[in-house]
Each structure stands twice: as structure tokens, then as C-alpha cells.
Task: structure prediction
Amino acid sequence: MGEDFYSLYPFTNKYCSYLVGHPQVLTSDLSFDISLYYGVARVQILPPRTLFHPVLPLKANDKLIFPLCNTCAQSKLTDRCNHSDSERALTGTWVTLELEKAVEIGYKILKVDIVWNFTEKSRYDKDTKSGGLFTEYVNTFLKVKQEASGWPTWCVTQEDRKRYVREYAENEGIDLDVSNIKHNPGLRALSKLMLNSFWGKFGQRSDLEKTEVVSEVERLYDLLKDTDETEVTNLRFINDDIVEVCYKDRTDFERPNARVNGSIAAFTTCHARLRLYEVLQRLGERVLYYDTDSVIYISKPGEWDPPIGDYLGDP
Result:
């Protein structure tokens, strides 16, 4: 069987905890008890030798993988691992929540280099319908998406429709407008894009190529002559008065982006992976395949299957 999580990233943005403010940058007298911290940490950690579903991701050879041995990962070895603990240990930066889960599963922290510890956090309270960094944003576009999806197939009678609107308000805290509930593929696609791409802007690279439409000769000269800081990659003359200039900042002169916060992006993917891991852990070796927000597994009579739901974060 195959199951997709319903809007997994919007779920994490709305319901999971997020850091607030500036971190304490800790570099000395650090505890191996990672639960004492809330933020991100650079550590050396030893995975268990046998684990069907590894917890921590690692970037190796320009790919994100989930290894139990660093040497095997870097060398792309697929044979039985006979490396020592020092050769197997992973070194990287992870969200502390993910490290806590790893330690619970059997990973062992060997060294803690640095911790960005945040003393403040924000999380949506479903009972009071308050809190959360991104709740208002998610609710705005989730309402549009849900209305543009039309009525569920089980909503046959007026009573069914009233029940649907009532239960959605109870579960998501969003009052759907009955007059707007109609199938609208374009509006649904747009609102879905706004929901799923939002968090990624916090982790956007600052070295991406930029495009500027130039109509002033002085500005064109500035871009062309400033070769120490920028590199012009392409020029396209639209007409006699307008030119499209593609350029990128040289590595040593990347301009900081005040809208970027890598920690927020890292927390989003961390929460999503932990949500997925809850299902993987219970399914065990019945899992055939999984990716960011879906699982394909063998369903057996009498054994646990992920419950199916209609709300954010449900399979």
C-alpha cells in the first residue's frame, strides 16, 4: 500500500515548534545531553551498526543519504561494513530535536563542537487557537486551497456539507465559506504553491544567479565594470533601449539576505522527517519505499497500518 501525508510541510509550519530570537552561541563546557539545548548543533555521532531506518541525514558526494557509516557513505561502499567506530562516526550539523531522536534509537554522541541554543520558541496551541510563527500565513492559504478543492465526495446532502464545514473548523480552526467551496484547479494550485514553497525561502542560497532588466546606460556600465564583486554571465538585448543582464556575486562578495534564516528551514525539514519517522518506525521492515512525504509498504492482516485522515499532517 502507499500513503501520502496531507500537506506535511504546511503541517510542520503550523503545528510544530519554532525558534524565536537570537541564539546563544555555545562553544565550551558543552553537555552530551543534547536535550538540554533547543536549536542546532555540530556534533560527532556514532550510529548503531544495525538499524533498518537510520535517523540522521548526511550529505555525501553531493547527495543527501541516511548512512550508518561515514566511510562507506563517502566511498560509496555497498559491501558489509567492517570499519571501526572512528571510521563510522558521522560529523555534521543537525537540529537538536533530531539528535534527541537519534540518541533514543541508539546513536551515541562522541563530541559536541558548537551549539546554537535558542531560549525562546513558539508553537500553535490548538485549544486556544493562538501562537505559532506561521499559523496565520498557513491558515490564509489553507482556507483558499480547501475551498478551491470543492466538496469531498462523501458530502452528498446538505447535512453532510454542514458536518464537513463544522468538523474542519473544529480540527483546523478555519471557518470555510460555503459560497466559495467549488472546484477551482487554478486557485487550488496557486494556494498549494504558496503553502509548500513558503518555508524554502528561509533556506534559499544567496549565490543564485540574478536577472536585471536595465534601461539606464550608467547602470549597465556599473554591472559590467564591477568585476571584483560580480560576474556577468549573459546579456540579452531586448531592443535598442533595454537589455537583460544576468549576473551573480563572486563567492567572496556574497551579499547577506535579511530574509534568510537557515535555522527555520532546518527545523521545517527536521519536523517533517520526524513525523515521517513515526510511521517508518512502526512499519519496520514492511516499508518498501519512502520519500519526503509518502510511504509504500506491505499491508498485512492484523498488523498496524497508518490511520488515514483528512487534516494537515495526516497520512
